[in-house]
Specification:
The complex is a heterodimer.
Chain A lengths: L10 H16 L5 E2 L13 H10 L5 E6 L6 H14 L2 E2 L8 E5 L12 E5 L13 H9 L4 H14 L10 E3 L3 E3 L17 E6 L4 E5 L5 E3 L26 E5 L6 E5 L2 H9 L16
Chain B lengths: L7 H17 L9 H7 L1 H11 L4 H10 L4 H12 L17 E6 L26 H4 L20 H6 L27 H9 L3 H12 L7 E17 L4 E17 L12 E8 L3 H14 L16 H7 L2 H9 L6 H27 L1
Antiparallel strand pairs in B: 1-2, 2-3, 3-4
Helix pairs in contact in B: 2-4, 3-4, 3-5, 4-5, 8-10, 9-10
Classes of the chains: A alpha/beta, B alpha+beta.
Chain lengths: 289, 362
């Protein structure tokens, strides 16, 4: 890999991406077009996040990658390996030790600090896309702050189902201006979006970057009489006993038996290391699964 | 007790090892070398170069070998390689009127200066499996004729003398480049042509076919189709003059389309244009038809709401690397999103059952 530049992309490209990131930070929630490059992994597999990470990484960084909250899912492994190879940066699975975290579909349970950057992989950056397929039209709607369509959609959900039928990629309003897609995180994670860390969103195929500076006001769209409600499975983690973390449901036998475990594998591991044991957990052993 | 699934890393390594073994196939059968692919599967090589946007037959052949013959995968390999190449300059526009034509046909004139040259074409072959090829591929030399002296003029030039065809106004503006700038809509024609020439052959073909079947119908005649080599020249600042870097093979298609005239234009013929790397005739013709369909606005034609007229629809979905990546990404884990949907559906069902019971009780 020595033929490639640090973190794969050439410096010109990184500069172009950094400009887009800075513009995004200056206009929180606004989708900045950028000249996305073809990456050696497929579109839809995190090329936007990978380009943003490549533009932000320095040789001193410690890098963490999660997919669905887990460090050991196949695509997280593949992206972590990519930067180990092309940037030789240190990597970690510990949330607190990472200076840069690339994520797909989750925000870590542990609160992030001002010294950290969280990079999201975004499939469809446009929150209005499934209401209006044309990009020309949706850009116009954003510039005119014309979000009536979105409110009508949420209202129709309530009138049909009695509740807003959006469970993930739940739209938010940023600093009272732009409606933004927080990427397909479960709405459970939405309240964390006003965090201390810098949040960068990269959509490679759709050629868009957007950002949330630290402590940005991010409000999940709702109605006074139907307030936003973050939700999770009504259980505790069966491995570590956590009652405050987002849970994955795992089918464990042919009879349809199931258990619930933290989707954030590092959070679960650190709780078990600290002696917490869930209903079906065993005492933690260093190095064991 | 439940043990979380680990070992993604080892699984990936093992999967790659198995993939390499499958690529090689039965080791008792001789291995393909890259030169064989380049020479004997040259139309596959051409497609990979065209949609990969990189003219390099050896690399394209290597990509086909590595991709086990999956051409979209091969195009992906080429694209990912191309994006790392530094750009040291831009060539002069290539002159297709200077093309050394291997093939040059016109469907609009029986004969024209330069003549009809069929060249190495499948046209007029009977599509009968040649079982002899299964045993041996040796062929007799094809007869040769002396090359025509001088350049072959474009046939469209003859129509232009009468003013029967729209004028193509020369333009020296630097064309946009969608591999370097984000694609912004509406796009100008140069950008549309770039997107079409690297777009998926199947997608462009089907769109072109749809215009023939009445979705934005605009009957096209192939005014001229030519395939051959053109020189690529570039100014070298240190030298102060242009030198020829080499020769590339191109396929160019110019269509002549009916046009009844509009408020702004008199009745005349209009043009569709296709230009593609390599011998890629189907793609070049399809490109010309789609180009013409996309020009409805500038010609003051009616929007029929046809897919081939919808610039955003065509340009946003023509790239097979974007399409295949996003399509195949749904194989990736979506536990978290699915979990949140599961809970939502359970909640909505509880509420629906609750209200049904209440209604029954009332």
């Amino acid at each position: 890999m020595s033929d490639y530049n640090f973190a794969y992309l050439d410096e010109q490209t990184k500069r172009m991406i950094r400009r887009a990131i800075l513009k995004g930070l200056a206009i929180p929630g606004y989708q900045v077009p950028f000249a996305s490059r073809e990456m050696p992994m497929p579109y839809g597999w995190g090329t936007g996040g990978v380009q943003v990470s490549a533009a932000c990484l320095t040789p001193d960084d410690t890098f963490k990658v999660i997919d669905q909250g887990a460090d050991d899912t196949t695509n997280a492994v593949s992206i972590r390996k990519f930067f180990e190879k092309t940037a030789q940066v240190a990597t970690t699975e510990e949330t607190a030790r990472a200076s840069l975290i690339q994520t797909r579909h989750r925000i870590p349970e542990e609160a992030l600090s001002e010294d950290q950057i969280l990079v999201y992989q975004v499939p469809i950056p446009e929150p209005l896309r499934f209401l209006e397929p044309s990009e020309v039209e949706t850009r116009k709607m954003h510039s005119l702050e014309e979000y009536g369509l979105m409110h009508v959609k949420l209202y129709e959900d309530i009138s049909q189902h009695g509740a807003i039928a959006t469970a993930y990629a739940y739209p938010v309003k940023v600093e009272g201006r732009y409606v933004m897609d927080p990427s397909p995180i479960p709405k459970f994670d939405n309240p964390k979006l006003g965090m201390a860390a810098i949040q960068l969103f990269g959509a490679g195929r759709e050629q868009r970057i957007y950002a949330l500076p630290p402590y940005t006001a991010v409000v999940s769209l709702d109605f006074e009489d139907h307030p936003f409600e973050p939700s999770k499975a009504d259980h505790d983690c069966d491995l570590c006993g956590a009652s405050d973390s987002y849970l994955d449901e795992v089918i464990v036998d042919d009879a349809g038996g199931r258990m619930f475990v933290c989707s954030d594998t590092d959070y679960c591991r650190s709780r078990r290391a600290a002696g917490h044991v869930g209903a079906q957990g065993a005492p933690y052993e260093e190095g064991a699964a | 007790m439940y043990v979380a699934v680990k070992g993604g890393e080892r699984a990936i390594d093992n999967a790659h090892a198995w993939l390499a073994e499958e690529r090689r196939g039965d080791a008792a059968v001789a291995e393909l070398d890259v030169a064989q692919i380049r020479e004997q599967l040259s139309l596959a090589v051409n497609r990979v170069m065209a949609e990969g946007s990189l003219y390099d037959p050896d690399l394209a052949a290597l990509a086909i070998k590595q991709a086990r013959g999956d051409l979209i995968e091969a195009i992906f390999l080429i694209r990912a390689y191309r994006t790392t190449l530094p750009r040291f300059g831009a060539s002069h526009p290539v002159g297709t009127s200077e093309m050394r034509c291997d093939r040059r046909i016109s469907a609009t004139f029986k004969d024209a200066p330069g003549g009809q040259v069929l060249g190495p074409t499948f046209d007029y072959t009977h599509r009968l499996l040649d079982f002899k090829l299964a045993a041996e591929g040796e062929v007799a030399d094809a007869p040769e004729a002396p090359p025509q002296p001088g350049p072959t003029p474009h046939i469209m030039g003859y129509l232009n003398r009468e003013g029967l065809i729209e004028d193509e106004v020369p333009n020296d503006a630097t064309p946009p480049d969608l591999t370097r700038e984000p694609m912004e809509l509406p796009a100008d024609r140069a950008l549309r042509l770039q997107a079409l020439t690297r777009g998926d052959e199947g997608f462009i073909l089907s769109l072109a076919y749809s215009t023939q079947r009445g979705y934005a119908r605009n009957h096209a005649f192939v005014g001229e189709l030519r395939i051959g080599g053109v020189g690529v020249e570039m100014d070298i600042p240190e030298l102060g003059f242009a030198i020829e870097l080499g020769e590339i093979t191109l396929t160019e298609c110019e269509t002549v389309n009916q046009f009844k005239g509009s408020k702004t234009e008199p009745p005349q013929f209009t043009r569709g244009y296709g230009l593609v790397f390599g011998q890629t005739e189907r793609k070049a013709i399809a490109m010309a038809l789609v180009d013409r369909a996309l020009r409805w606005k500038e010609l003051g034609e009616e929007d029929q709401g046809a897919p081939a007229q919808d610039e955003e629809f065509v340009l946003m979905h023509a790239d097979n690397i974007q399409a295949t990546g996003f399509l195949e990404h749904i194989k990736l884990p979506h536990y978290v999103d699915f979990q949140s949907e599961l809970e939502l559906v359970r909640k909505l069902r509880r509420e629906a059952e609750g209200s049904a019971r209440r209604e029954a009780a009332e």
